[in-house]
Write a structure and sequence with these properties.
The chain has about 140 residues and is of the alpha/beta class. The protein is built from five helices and five strands; from the N terminus they run E-H-H-E-E-E-E-H-H-H.
Length: about 140
């Protein structure tokens, strides 16, 4: 399943706060036609109830169960930041927005968790110089 494409990866995110980062990754999901703007609103609702910080410089914002109808197709968007973003007291350099139709996002979450549990892989992602490098390292899609 190609849920991640080069047009939904940003090497140098512009956000400097958690909320701006959620808006930035949400806008990528909207711009690729994966979700409606209401899904992005639900991403903020999710974050206000439970932090999506995962550890190892990663946060995975996503919508609430009630926002499933706002997902048009399963997709992932990745934004890497040049500096740490404070995510509730934790440093984040990768914000990965996920929108999954049905249960398809569970496999994607597992793949992302596997990559980010390996500190060498996280270093490779930090040092990647192209969106193709990120795409290949995450293994979630195709061009």
């Amino acid at each position: 399943m190609n849920v991640l494409t080069t047009d939904s990866i940003r090497l140098h995110g512009a956000a400097t706060t958690r909320d701006d980062a959620i808006a930035e990754v949400g806008a990528l999901l909207v711009s690729t036609g994966a979700v409606t703007q209401d899904y992005v609103v639900a991403m903020f609702a999710r974050e206000s109830s439970v932090s999506t910080y995962m550890g190892n410089l990663l946060a995975i914002p996503h919508g609430t169960n009630e926002s499933k109808d706002e997902i048009l197709r399963s997709a992932v968007a990745v934004v890497r930041y040049d500096s740490d973003i404070d995510w509730g007291g934790h440093p984040v350099r990768f914000v990965i927005g996920i929108a999954g139709k049905g249960d398809s996002h569970l496999e994607v979450l597992g793949s992302i968790a596997t990559v980010f549990s390996d500190l060498a892989a996280v270093t490779e992602l930090l040092e990647a110089t192209s969106v193709d490098d990120i795409l290949a390292r995450l293994g979630l899609g195709g061009a």
